[in-house]
Amino acid sequence: MTESTLTERGQISVPATLRKTMGLRPGQRFKWERISDREFRVIVALEAPIGPRAMLGYARKIRKGPSRRSNDWMRELRAGEIIP
Questions:
Q1: What is the pTM of this model?
Q2: According to the model, what pLDDT value does residue 15 have?
Q3: 43: which strand partners?
Q4: Strand segments (E) across 1-84
Q5: Contact by Cβ (8 Å): 41, 33
Q6: Distance from C-alpha of 71 to C-alpha of 78, rounded to nearest angstrom
Q7: Residue 83: per-residue pLDDT
Q8: The pLDDT value given to residue 41
Q9: Among positive and negative, which fits the CA dihedral 6, 11, 23, 37?
Q10: Which residues does 34 contact at the CB level (< 8 Å), separation at least 6?
Q11: C-alpha dist (Å) from residue 55 to 8, 18, 48, 51, 62
Q12: H-helix or E-strand containing 16?
């Protein structure tokens, strides 16, 4: 079992072995649940983006290959399109 020390500002460091094992990164959020007078359960909060920002990076995840600019995408979509 590893230990951490509570600072004067109420901060606790997560030991490096746990950060690496769990893939934690800066800005990660946690939920604290009180179990008893001397025990807490720490739960890694799931990050669920909401609103328009939730779509950022979505195309990159589903489309393999180099990233492209919006003009390139529009050119591809309009290829073969007949403009009156």
A1: 0.48
A2: 92
A3: 31
A4: 30-34, 40-44
A5: yes
A6: 10
A7: 65
A8: 93
A9: positive
A10: 40
A11: 39, 30, 11, 8, 12
A12: helix 16-22
Q: How far is CA 6 from the centre of its chain?
A: 26
Chain-centre distance for alpha carbon 23: 11
CA distance 43 to 65: 36
Q: What is the mean pLDDT of each run of 10 residues along the chain (84 residues)?
A: 90 91 89 94 80 70 66 79 66
> Cα separation of 66 and 19, whole Å?
31
Place of tokens 């690496």: 20
Query: Which pLDDT does position 69 carry in this prediction?
Result: 74
Contact between residue 67 and residue 60 where contact means Cβ atoms under 8 Å apart:
yes
